[in-house]
């Protein structure tokens, strides 16, 4: 590699010196090339040695392990009979390794066991089979290193200049360069008086003589003869080009005939002798000829035509031989020298005379890449030259960008043409050669996708570019799932995700075009559909070793598609629909989306689409919460249409879950009823509040859960869906409704005084008291329902819960009635609705003493009459609480009529209790 880079640096220095006075450039270039080559070579060698050492060490350890495993057999006592059957132990694991001789780059053979020491005891029985030769361990080839093109070219040049007849090779190169400089120097300084025609003929005769001598020596001194022939061919190329460009001695037609003839002649020599070196020498000489003999005044058409002829020579060689070095020499010289010419001399007026040569050379090197894959040995057919396959389009597209920089859509058209070219070529390779050239076909297909991706943003605006990328990503995934490929799947998913991001950042335009039929909606919908299509393709696609990752990708793309679908729709509604109608429009849009998704999921057996229906109820809840905060109710605008439609859709979804036996159907039944109840309560309260002032709206809203419980009890034995589908769930829900109603009333009646406007306050006939009475009635009815259905609930673990439910109802009803009493004191006695003021009020304390005493009296009397000892004890507890309150609280209000009423009233109640229920009922003997 060092020699190759030294030569490369020397040639680069010559190129610099040819147009300047930098005489030290070749020496400096050679020095830098040598140092760089040595550095790279040492690095590579160290890595190879390290890898070989580690591999050898592992194999030695494995051999030691096998020796230890066989040790017990070797230590068998002399009298032990050796088995005659072949052993089947670990040693068989290496039977497939080569043992006939040392392989290339293999390590020396290892003796698996040291020689056993001589023993004086009786020799043991031996195995009559001949001992197997120890295995030869051949280390695997070192892992491929990622090398640049210049490293590969330098390695080849190093091998070429360090093997074979090195002096003659170096001599040919130096002679060739010396002839070029001599010709230029002779012209500049007029050294000879002979006509230039004779000088050129003399040089040509010398070159031809080198070819003839080399041909005659081809059987005896192959390397020497090939070097002479290569040098002679280079001299002939140089003479023809000099006669054409420098002295204009040959017409262009005759010169090209000679060049074609010389090209064919060199091609024939190299193919007949199977000499890669010959054609490389000839190619290097031919490509360097116009550079070394250039005056800077020639025609680019002549230069590129000449290079076209040389590249046709390389195509002819590639038809017979897969010589990568020859291909790379032509590739590098053609595009490097062409790029340098374009940088210095190209102008827009030269497009018509430059573009055909760029296209021709591009096609030639794609043909060479295909021939290189086809002309490989049988085991390597299909081998891809990455430099030609990927390097050629990159360089050509960069040069094309410079050529069409002043043409509108020129680069977009160029990229599209390249995409079509590679797609057609990939198709032709697939049909003509099938799996033999699969890697090359896939490479061309990837290039087609890449150039199509590039062409889109060059031709379209940002919005449609993002959409095209999304569709392209979906197409990649479709293709990759039909012909399993990891890279194409990941590339397609990445394109879809990045297309959405690009559209958000650069493609969205507010309020542009018609409603719905505009770029925003169409692009967003296409991005969404591309993501959903890709998710559908990847849902059940698994390809080792990352099979599970495809499931994650599928769900991610599905979520991305749903997000884009909903986001596009909501954004369009926000842009186009008035504020009063936006909520209803979003609800209708979401309902339609869920219907289509659920229907498609059921008919096409797509679990992801069916799963989207599970998000409908939470989405409705969020929209309802937003609507309450934003509008105060739900029926405004088109809400009277949108929300009923939404709940019809939700009912259809829940019914579908029941038919499919969905495990979570019961949960969605309960959730749907709860959401509907809350929304009806909010809407009823809003509508009542619009017509009547005061607390009537709160009272009306609080009645809705009780009404819902009554409806459930009404249909609990009916065959009509939905209550019979999940009777226990609906029964538990109804009890929760009742408890929730009473708890809600407890909170609001404690917080608010209960304005009765426009009517004056009347005990019982006011909004809060009526609501409490209704809630209490529903609670009593729930206890009746529980008693009737007790048998059906006995084995469900519910009795303990029902007991807690009864206790909760009793405590809540006590709080509600107490608050109702205090509310009456507030309105009738003009005591402010404040906890401290009510506590300090003598009227409030007296009323509480009388009320709680009546409750205690009722409990004791009913407990004694019914024989319920627990009820009697509860009443007695209340009476004790009242007596304690009289002495701790009411006694402080001395000298007031209220204190007198409190003590007398409670005393009378105790006297009555002492008459009717003086003692608690006795416990039956059989009761524990």
Automatic annotation (TrEMBL):
Annotated coiled-coil segments of the chain: none
Annotated Low complexity bias: 118-129
Region ranges (Disordered): 64-140
UniProt source species: Marinihelvus fidelis
Organism placement in taxonomy: Bacteria, Pseudomonadati, Pseudomonadota, Gammaproteobacteria, Chromatiales
Alphabetical UniProt keywords: Membrane, Transmembrane, Transmembrane helix
Signal peptide: none
Protein's recorded name: DUF2339 domain-containing protein
InterPro entries, A to Z: DUF2339_TM, UCP035905_mem
Transmembrane segments: 22-41, 166-186, 198-217, 224-244, 250-271, 278-297, 303-320, 327-346, 358-374, 381-403, 409-427, 439-456, 462-480, 487-508, 514-535, 547-566, 581-600, 607-625, 631-654, 666-686, 698-716, 728-752, 764-786, 798-822, 842-863, 870-888, 900-918
Compositionally biased intervals (Pro residues): 131-140
PANTHER family in alphabetical order: BLL2549 PROTEIN
């Amino acid at each position: 590699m060092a020699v190759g880079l030294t030569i490369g640096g020397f040639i680069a220095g010559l190129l610099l010196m040819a147009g300047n006075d930098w005489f030290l450039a070749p020496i400096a270039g050679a020095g830098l090339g040598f140092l760089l080559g040595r550095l790279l070579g040492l690095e590579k060698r160290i890595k190879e040695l390290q890898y070989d050492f580690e591999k050898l060490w592992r194999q030695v350890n494995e051999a030691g392990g096998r020796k230890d495993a066989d040790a017990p057999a070797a230590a068998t006592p002399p009298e032990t009979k050796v088995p005659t059957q072949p052993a089947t132990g670990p040693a068989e694991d290496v039977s497939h390794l080569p043992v006939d001789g040392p392989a290339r780059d293999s390590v020396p053979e290892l003796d698996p066991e040291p020689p056993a020491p001589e023993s004086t005891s009786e020799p043991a029985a031996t195995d009559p089979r001949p001992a197997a030769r120890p295995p030869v361990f051949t280390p695997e080839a070192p892992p491929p290193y990622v090398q640049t093109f210049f490293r590969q070219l330098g390695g080849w040049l190093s091998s070429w200049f360090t093997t074979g007849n090195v002096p003659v090779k170096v001599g040919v190169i130096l002679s060739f360069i010396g002839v070029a400089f001599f010709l230029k120097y002779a012209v500049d300084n007029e050294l000879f008086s002979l006509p230039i025609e004779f000088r050129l003929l003399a040089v040509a005769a010398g070159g031809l003589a080198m070819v003839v001598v080399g041909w005659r020596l081809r059987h005896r001194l192959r390397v020497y003869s090939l070097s002479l022939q290569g040098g002679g061919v280079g001299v002939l190329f140089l003479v023809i080009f000099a006669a054409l460009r420098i002295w204009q001695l040959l017409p262009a037609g005759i010169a090209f005939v000679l060049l074609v003839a010389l090209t064919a002649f060199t091609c024939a020599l190299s193919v007949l002798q199977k000499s890669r070196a010959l054609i490389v020498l000839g190619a290097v000489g031919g490509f360097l000829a116009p550079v070394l003999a250039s005056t800077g005044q020639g025609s680019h058409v002549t230069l590129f035509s000449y290079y076209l002829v040389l590249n046709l020579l390389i195509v002819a060689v590639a038809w017979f031989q897969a010589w990568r070095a020859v291909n790379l020499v032509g590739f590098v010289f053609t595009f490097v020298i062409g790029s340098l010419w374009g940088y210095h001399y190209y102008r827009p007026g030269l497009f018509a005379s430059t573009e055909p040569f760029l296209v021709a050379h591009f096609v030639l090197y794609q043909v060479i890449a295909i021939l290189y894959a086809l002309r490989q040995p049988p085991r390597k057919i299909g081998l891809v030259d990455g430099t030609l396959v990927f390097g050629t389009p990159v360089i050509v597209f960069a040069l094309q960008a410079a050529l069409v920089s002043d043409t509108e859509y020129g680069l977009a058209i160029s990229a599209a043409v390249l995409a079509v070219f590679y797609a057609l070529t990939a198709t032709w390779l697939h049909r003509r050669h099938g799996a033999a050239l699969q890697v090359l076909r896939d490479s061309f297909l990837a290039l087609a996708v890449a150039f199509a991706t590039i062409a889109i943003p060059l031709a379209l605006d940002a919005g449609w570019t993002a959409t095209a990328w999304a569709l392209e990503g979906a197409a990649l995934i479709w293709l990759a799932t039909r012909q399993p490929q990891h890279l194409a799947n990941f590339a397609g998913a990445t394109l879809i995700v990045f297309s959405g991001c690009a559209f958000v950042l650069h493609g969205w335009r507010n309020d542009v075009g018609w409603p719905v039929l505009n770029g925003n909606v169409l692009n967003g919908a296409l991005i969404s559909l591309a993501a959903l299509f890709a998710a559908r393709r990847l849902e059940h696609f698994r390809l080792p070793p990352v099979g599970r990752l495809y499931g994650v990708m599928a769900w991610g793309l599905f979520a991305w598609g749903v997000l884009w679908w909903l986001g596009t729709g909501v954004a369009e509604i926000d842009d186009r629909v008035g504020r009063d109608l936006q909520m209803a429009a979003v609800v209708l849009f979401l309902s339609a989306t869920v219907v289509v998704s659920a229907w498609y999921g059921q008919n096409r057996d797509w679990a992801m689409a069916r799963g989207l229906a599970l998000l409908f109820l939470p989405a409705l809840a969020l929209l309802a919460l937003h609507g309450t905060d934003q509008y105060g109710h739900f029926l405004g605008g088109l809400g009277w249409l949108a929300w009923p439609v939404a709940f019809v859709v939700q009912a259809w979804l829940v019914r579908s879950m029941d038919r499919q036996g969905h495990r979570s159907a019961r949960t969605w039944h309960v959730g749907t009823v709860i959401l509907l109840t809350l929304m009806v309560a909010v809407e009823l309260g809003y509508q009542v509040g619009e017509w009547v002032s005061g607390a009537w709206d709160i009272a009306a809203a609080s009645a809705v859960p009780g009404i819902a419980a009554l409806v459930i009890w009404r249909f609990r034995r009916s065959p009509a869906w939905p209550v019979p589908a999940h009777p226990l769930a609906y029964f538990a829900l109804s009890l929760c409704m009742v408890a929730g109603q009473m708890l809600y009333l407890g909170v609001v009646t404690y917080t608010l005084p209960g304005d009765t406007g426009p009517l004056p306050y009347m005990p019982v006939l006011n909004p809060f008291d009526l609501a409490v009475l209704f809630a209490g009635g529903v609670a009593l009815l729930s206890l009746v329902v529980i008693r009737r259905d007790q048998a059906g609930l006995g084995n469900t673990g519910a009795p303990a819960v029902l007991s807690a439910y009864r206790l909760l109802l009793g405590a809540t009803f006590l709080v509600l009635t107490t608050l109702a009493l205090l509310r009456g004191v507030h309105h009738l006695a003009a005591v402010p609705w404040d906890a401290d003021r009510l506590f300090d009020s003598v009227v409030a304390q007296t009323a509480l003493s009388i009320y709680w005493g009546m409750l205690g009296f009722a409990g004791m009397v009913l407990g004694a009459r019914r024989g319920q000892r627990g009820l009697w004890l509860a009443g007695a507890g209340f009476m004790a609480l009242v007596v304690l309150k009289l002495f701790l609280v009411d006694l402080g209000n001395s000298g007031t009529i209220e204190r007198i009423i409190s003590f007398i009233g409670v005393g009378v109640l105790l006297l009555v209790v002492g008459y009717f229920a003086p003692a608690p009922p006795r416990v039956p003997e059989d009761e524990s």
